[in-house]
Amino acid sequence: MSALARLISRRMRRLRPEPPGPFETPRRRRDPSPARWRYRLDRLGRRGYVRFALRRLAVPACLTLAGLWAWQSPTVHTSVLDLAERARAAVVERPEFAVLRLDIQGGSPDLQARVATRLDLQLPVSSLALDLAALKLEVETIPGVARAEPKVMADGALRIELAQRAPAALWRWDGQLHLLDRDGVIIGPVAARAARPNLPLILGEGADRAIAEALALWDLAQPVNDRLRGLVRVGERRWSLALSSGVVVHLPEKAPEAALRRLLHLERDEQLLDREVAVIDLRDPERPTLRLTPRAVDVLEGARELLEGQKA
After folding, report:
1. Which CATH architecture best describes the domain 169-300?
2. pLDDT digits (tens, 9 = 90+) for 206-244
3. Assign residue 201 a region: left if phi > 0, alpha if psi is -120 to 50, beta otherwise?
4. Spatial separation of the C-alpha atoms in residues 92 and 167, rounded to whole Å
5. Domain layout of the chain by residue ranges
6. How many C-beta neighbours within 10 Å does residue 126 have?
7. What is the pTM of this model?
8. Which of 33, 49, 161, 277 is found 20 to 30 A from 254 (Cα to Cα)?
9. Cα dihedral: 177, 178, 181, 187 (round 10)
10. φ and ψ at 186, to 5 degrees?
11. Are 144 and 183 in contact (CB under 8 A)?
């Protein structure tokens, strides 16, 4: 036998398993088929959504869980908050965001002073720390301000443009005179009637809520405006006219303008307001009622007694 054949024979004998000993159990050959769970996991790993979750979602999910775990640590939590606060302060306190002055435009000087006093801004302040929406609401609650538009200008000014309420009437209530606009909103107090002699005067509880009707009656009563002292709200449902001569005119709850026109016709034709009349009641459109003054009553009683004496 050649040398090469002997070498191959020796190699083959080494690869051949040795026979088991007398007390050894022969080894079982490995089953080449996979186990059940291994097979199922292999099939599951071949699904598209599983591969997508493992490749795209596994890393973000692990990072999120790690972040949540770190956030639960008091030390990490405090450090992150301190870092965020220092970063915010570094941005907010930059000089280009500083508001150096307050510029109020529109309205009277008195109203501007009241707005500045109400805001009480401690300047300089960062524009990033200003809540313009809250400033707008705060300014519009000031009596006399109809609208306010706050803006931060490029030159470092906080400009507030005001639209002032226009006074439309004076309202006497609870011993105090108040200026009202056409919506019945109180603008501010007034010391005396002489300070605003050109404005209508309304009195009584609830008069501010019926100011539109009061202004319409006041405009309609222009022919007797020199005698009209004011409109009195009675029972929060109707008006009475108070004249300078002491005459009181009761208007009805419904259609007061029509009753006032009737009174003006009577005044124009009969000069009713120049007579000795104390009260003119127009609440019943079918039966207007007149109440005479005490002097007229005395004269009428005297004339009646004189007539009765003559008849006797």
Report:
1. 3-Layer(aba) Sandwich (3.40)
2. 999 999 999 999 999 999 988 999 999 999 999 999 998
3. beta
4. 42
5. 95-164, 169-300
6. 17
7. 0.61
8. 277
9. 150
10. -70, 125
11. no
